[in-house]
Design goal:
Oligomer: homodimer
Distance between the termini of chain A: 24 Å
Strand order of the largest sheet of chain A: 3-2-1-4-5-6-14
Helix content of chain A: 25-40%
CATH architecture of the largest domain in chain A: 3-Layer(aba) Sandwich
Shape of chain A: globular
Pathway (chains A, B): Amino-acid biosynthesis; L-lysine biosynthesis via DAP pathway; DL-2,6-diaminopimelate from (S)-tetrahydrodipicolinate: step 1/1
Strand content of chain A: 25-35%
Largest sheet of chain A: 7 strands, parallel
Organism (chains A, B): Ruminiclostridium papyrosolvens DSM 2782
Protein name (chains A, B): Meso-diaminopimelate D-dehydrogenase
Subunit structure (chains A, B): Homodimer.
GO molecular function, one term (chains A, B): nucleotide binding
Largest interface: A-B, 73 and 73 residues
Number of domains of chain A: 2
Chain lengths: 329, 329
């Protein structure tokens, strides 16, 4: 069997996770990692795999079946997505929800013109959570959706704290509120305000001599990020932050609570949850499964931009259709 | 927009659920119900819809886009599946796990010859639970699967009790054992015996003068059904059985617990669960979503037998692709 030949663009946390994920599957193979850094400064965990300057990626068009784009959604992917979609089958984790339709259109145009296949916005949200929201809503048209995130680190909120005057470093945890989750799980179909769904807990390293009371107030009153939530601020040392808060756990819950029957009296709860020790590694594993699918869809002539809504689940698996039916259906 | 025109074969609990589910969706329409009973004895909840003898179904080939087969897996579907797959696009809930590969092959042959599309074994297990098992295994190749069922009524086990000498009527609940579920949820990757996973609770109406001690022993020692489980037997009156145990709740949990990373030290838990007030109504709602998909796949020239592994999720929804991306991704 020919292995799926994969390239990685960007060797940050997700890129490293993709490298590890490829080693977990016998049908995938890492060909090269492409970086903006000096390739000699990048040391991979996989012996024999090349590190190449990103500007030379085009030379690998015949050696790579699918590129996994591991850059960030703010500045990397809006450029790299369309650029690489015109040369390779790609998979990415573009996660700026509001900009997905525009990003989809741009990538689709580039991929269609090149007869390539791009699966965008893959991961767990957007990604698995989106799939459950879509599937559950199709099954239970009369009902309510609930998504809770956490407990986990929000990079966006951590960054926002770091921009506060007097803050040297910070980590923010998004925490779903147990009572709200339980109320949904028990079919009460509650109306929940922003404050009732999530709590924000911040671990902050202040600069020496900084006004901690002012930092705390500045965080708690920050519009959009914190003002609508109950927020807890802890001041800790840089050492404590590093030793207790440098892992990247995350997770969350998606619920659909809906009614059925002629008199719509019967209630049903669909619940999907993730508890992840490492957000980037889990995201990377999802990306590799969809990389397999992108190559297969491309071979079948299915070109353009795709999302998790468009990919038959069997395409994600290294197993044959007969094995899937026999063992997992 | 043209509505999806649906026919129902068999007007039992699932057939009634399908009728209700069709009314919940603005893009689906019930054309007729087909029955082996005297059509005049069947009263639908939907005004104006015909009840037709099943032998006349073929006359509706041009009026129905998809037939939903609502018969049982033991005797109805093995005959009806291939028969109707040769005339209509069909969806069914064939759930005899061990016989699915054979059933798939038979239906596939009939559907391929007729250029029709058949989506088989749709529901929640097989169905949604299978999808989560497959998806989770593709994402976390190194890990363990766990499926727990219940709390819910098992028709097979209830029937087995009813065959015990001296038993007039009975209902059996399959109950997942909390400690086992918690242990999996907490990432302990336990090895669980049959007895450690589920408990069986039976509500039995004895015939007058029957030997209750013997009935209880006969149930508890029944091979395959009860001998490998801890089983609780309650004797109740027929009235009590009817008033307290005539609903059809069910549900369960699917877990994947797996490791990632270069040193595979990070653990991840994927959990999917259902809590259903009405097993047949929920199954019916899943069937109707896949009926929509069967028609669409057929229009696109995708013929033969399909399973939940083969259907892109967007095909289940009445919403447009743009709406799905904007609202749910």
């Amino acid at each position: 069997m020919n292995k799926v030949k994969i390239g990685i663009i960007g060797y940050g946390n997700i890129g490293k996770g993709v490298e590890a994920a490829i080693r977990q599957s016998s049908d995938t193979e890492l060909v090269a990692v492409f970086t903006r850094r000096n390739p000699e400064s990048v040391v991979l965990k996989t012996p024999g795999v090349k590190v190449v300057e990103i500007k030379d990626a085009e030379k690998y068009k015949n050696d790579i079946d699918v590129m996994i784009l591991c850059g960030g959604s703010a500045t990397d992917l809006p450029e790299q997505g369309p650029e690489f979609a015109a040369m390779f089958n790609i998979v990415d984790s573009f996660d700026t929800h509001a900009k997905i339709p525009e990003y989809f259109a741009t990538v689709n145009k580039a991929a269609m013109a090149a007869n390539k296949t791009s699966v965008i916005s893959v991961g767990w949200d957007p990604g698995l959570f989106s799939m459950i929201r879509m599937l559950s809503g199709a099954i239970l048209p009369e009902g309510n959706d609930y998504t809770f995130w956490g407990k986990g680190v929000s990079q966006g909120h951590s960054d926002a704290i770091r921009r506060v005057t007097g803050v040297k470093n910070a980590i923010q945890y998004t925490i779903p509120i147990d009572d709200a989750v339980e109320s949904v799980r028990n079919g009460k179909n509650p109306e929940l305000s922003t404050r009732q769904k999530h709590l924000r807990e911040c671990f902050v390293v202040a600069e020496e001599g900084a006004d901690k009371a002012k930092i705390e107030a500045d965080i708690k009153n920050m519009p959009n990020y914190f003002a609508d939530y109950d927020t807890i601020v802890h001041f800790v040392s840089e050492d404590e932050l590093k030793s207790n808060h440098s892992r990247m756990p995350h997770g969350g819950f998606v619920f659909r609570s809906g009614k059925t029957g002629i008199d719509t009296v019967n209630n049903h709860i669909i619940e999907f949850s993730l508890k992840l020790d490492s957000n980037p590694e889990f995201t990377a594993n999802v990306l590799v499964a969809y990389a397999r699918a992108a190559v297969r869809m491309n071979r079948e002539g299915c070109h353009g931009a795709k999302t998790v809504f468009d990919v038959p689940l069997s395409y994600l698996s290294a197993k044959s259709h007969a094995e899937l039916i026999k063992g997992l259906l």
